[in-house]
């Protein structure tokens, strides 16, 4: 089914509790159809919202960035699959990818591998002891994710073109680190605007603070969707 600009924008519900998340989803109304529940909200009771928002017709991305021994990742993935979410993140490391793939089998849950966090640059990787730069590490992880047979990748807008060339249409490319022109970057280091992300081949973008902290979150979401529609026309 063709995706609309609304399906392509995933709003990160980075909020402290269930009440704040419900208020934000009510304020965004029919403007937003796809939400991400990440660690802040999940640890504040937010996993219960996966079923609630799914029943209300929203698509849900559970962003827990799993990484553990294979058995634990497999069983945790199977638990998330029961909630009815569309996406789940795990770190894009071979054992973790394979375990998450096993845990999602028989369900509609799609596993996304997180390549290199968008708050990291080459110097941050070097400080962690990596010998590869961001571009090469994303490429390695993209190949490993494709080989593991998972659904997609989380990467920054900066690696979209090279990654698409590498994996073609075999993986969904989902990118955070997206900022409307002039918006505060916060802790994001590898960034682009919504139009740039779609011009470079993103399937979905993830946006949090530029919508959540806007004086009118619904208008901010609508403006991003208008930019997406224009970039894709
Ligand atoms: O997996 C993610 O969603 C993620 C990966 C990544 O590399 N960078 C990243 O920012 N994210 C998430 O995307 C969202 C970005 O939020 P904003 O920076 O407020 O737009 C947050 O919920 C992050 O946890």
Automatic annotation (TrEMBL):
EC number: 4.1.1.23
Recorded superkingdom: Bacteria
Keywords: Decarboxylase, Lyase, Pyrimidine biosynthesis
Protein species of origin: Rhodoblastus sphagnicola
GO CC term (a single one): cytosol
Database matches in CDD domains: OMP_decarboxylase_like (cd04725)
One Gene Ontology term from the biological process aspect of the record: 'de novo' pyrimidine nucleobase biosynthetic process
Start and end residues of each Orotidine 5'-phosphate decarboxylase domain: 8-224
Keyword Lyase set for record: yes
Class of enzymatic activity (EC top level): lyase
Function: Catalyzes the decarboxylation of orotidine 5'-monophosphate (OMP) to uridine 5'-monophosphate (UMP).
Entry annotation: catalytic residues: 63, 65, 68
Gene Ontology MF term list: orotidine-5'-phosphate decarboxylase activity
Stored HAMAP family: OMPdecase_type1_B
NCBIfam families: PRK00230.1 (NF001273), pyrF (TIGR01740)
Family (UniProt): Belongs to the OMP decarboxylase family. Type 1 subfamily.
Protein name, entry field: Orotidine 5'-phosphate decarboxylase
Pathway per the UniProt entry: Pyrimidine metabolism; UMP biosynthesis via de novo pathway; UMP from orotate: step 2/2
Residues the entry annotates as binding substrate: 14, 36, 63-72, 118, 179, 188, 208-209
Keyword Lyase: yes
Reaction(s) catalysed by this chain's protein: orotidine 5'-phosphate + H(+) = UMP + CO2
Subunit structure: Homodimer.
């Amino acid at each position: 089914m063709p995706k609309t600009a609304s399906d392509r924008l995933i709003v990160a519900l980075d909020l402290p509790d269930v009440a704040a998340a419900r208020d934000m989803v009510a304020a965004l109304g029919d403007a937003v159809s796809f939400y991400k529940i990440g660690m802040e909200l999940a640890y504040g009771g937010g996993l219960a919202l996966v079923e609630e928002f799914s029943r209300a017709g929203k698509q849900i991305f559970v962003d827990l960035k799993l990484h553990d021994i294979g058995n634990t990742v497999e069983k945790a993935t199977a638990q998330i699959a029961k909630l009815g979410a569309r996406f789940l993140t795990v770190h894009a490391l071979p054992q973790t990818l394979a375990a998450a793939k096993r845990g999602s089998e028989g369900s509609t849950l799609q596993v996304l591998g997180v390549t290199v966090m968008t708050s990291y640059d080459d110097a941050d990787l070097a400080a962690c002891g990596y010998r590869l730069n961001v571009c090469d590490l994303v490429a390695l992880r993209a190949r490993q994710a494709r080989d593991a047979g998972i659904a997609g990748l989380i990467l920054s807008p900066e690696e979209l073109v090279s990654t698409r060339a590498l994996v073609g249409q075999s993986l969904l490319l989902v990118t955070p680190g997206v900022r409307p022109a002039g918006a505060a970057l916060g802790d994001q280091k590898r960034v682009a605007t919504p139009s740039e992300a779609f011009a470079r081949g993103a399937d979905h973008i993830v946006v949090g603070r530029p919508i959540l902290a806007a004086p009118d979150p619904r208008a901010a979401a609508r403006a991003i969707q208008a930019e997406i529609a224009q970039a894709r026309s």
